[in-house]
Amino acid sequence: MDSIEVVVAHQERATLRVGDVFLKVDADQKRTDAEVAAMAMAPLPTPAILWRKPPVLALAALPGTALGLLGEPSPASPQAWAAAGAAARTLHDAPLPPWPGRTVDDWASELDRECTWLIMNEVLPTALITRNRRIAEAALRPWSPAFIHGDFQLTHVFTDGDELTGVLDWSEAAPGDPLFDLAILTLGHEERLTDVVRGYGTEVDLDLIRAWWSLRSLVVIRWLSENGFDPSAPGCEVDVLRSRM
Predict the structure, then answer these.
(1) pLDDT confidence bin for 2, thresholds 50/70/90
(2) Of 139, 161, 113, 145, which is closest to residue 214 (Cα–Cα)?
(3) Which residue(s) pair with 17 in the sheet?
(4) Burial label, 125 (beta-carbon count in 10 A; 0-12, 13-18, 19+)
(5) What does the alpha-carbon distance between residue 147 and residue 167 come to, in Å, rounded to a whole number?
(6) Element (H, E) at 21
(7) How far apart (Å, rounded) are the C-alpha atoms in residues 12 and 31?
(8) What are the tens digits of pLDDT across the range 149-198?
(9) Whole-angstrom Cα distance, residue 81 to residue 105?
(10) What is the phi-psi region of residue 212: left when phi exceeds 0, alpha when psi lies from -120 to 50, beta otherwise?
(11) Cβ burial 9-19 (10 Å sphere, 16+ → b, else e)
(12) CA-CA distance, 15 to 157, in Å (whole number)?
């Protein structure tokens, strides 16, 4: 062991890498409980749990590499992105986890709260917020709940060549809209949506995925800004919102 790498750190949790071991430190042990339970239920490869001593969860490294980073071109092949779409479909076809997920009303309340904050604090032009809110509201409709990952971003999906090797970070897993996972996976990488849908293997409403891009970007800007991330970096959330104009 030569060093300790801080993979990610913010007010809620931190992840450290020590050699081939990842140490997740989470202030909310209920969230860790859900992550452990979700990994046990998920029909996908997940990191092996080495040990747990609250507030720390030790996980083995996954083989392969992540699909990419938000704001940067993905080096992964179209087949690797299709494999991620196929993995999402496998997960969504699995039995639901027994705990509740976020409802339409939950999302509507958060969207209203965050748009109000963005406008009052003049974070973004009002026209940009209003346009994206109108798009986002299409996602706020009844859906048939599926077992979703809840944070299925490209940095959490690992592949080796064209094959999926595993999925990280199951702390947000719950029943929810399956299109949310596809939207989070392709956020900022719209050019990969065709590959993901091809791997998913069934027709999806692309306008609803675009609605989730707007909704997710609007509601996460304050949290990102308060936790040391830059949503206005090239290719990130603010650019996603601007692309809807």
Answers:
(1) low
(2) 139
(3) 5, 22
(4) middle
(5) 14
(6) strand 21-26
(7) 10
(8) 999 999 999 999 999 999 999 999 999 999 999 999 999 999 999 999 99
(9) 32
(10) alpha
(11) eeeebbbbeee
(12) 16
Domain layout of the chain by residue ranges: 64-243
Euclidean distance between CA atoms 129 and 155, whole angstroms: 27
Handedness of CA 72, 78, 83, 89 (dihedral sign): positive
What are the Cα distances from residue 50, in Å, to 14, 20, 93, 202, 243? 17, 11, 28, 36, 43
Q: pLDDT digit string (tens) for 115-137?
A: 999 999 999 999 999 999 999 99
Specify the CATH architecture of the domain 64-243: Alpha-Beta Complex (3.90)
Single-letter amino acid code for the residue at 103: T
Residues 194 and 215: beta-carbon distance below 8 Å: no
Q: How far apart are CA 137 and CA 111, in angstroms?
A: 9
Residue showing tokens 């199951």:
170
What pLDDT is recorded for position 3?
79
Look up residue 173 and give its two tokens: 């897993």
Please tell me the number of Cα atoms within 13 Å of 24 on its side-chain side: 24
Exposed, middle or buried, 116 (CB in 10 Å: 0-12/13-18/19+)? Answer: exposed
DSSP code for 230: -
Question: Which residue is it, tokens 């601007």?
Answer: 242
CA–CA dist 190, 202 (Å, integer): 18
Average pLDDT, the chain: 95
Could you give the count of Cα atoms lying within 13 Å of 12 in the half-sphere of its Cβ? 11
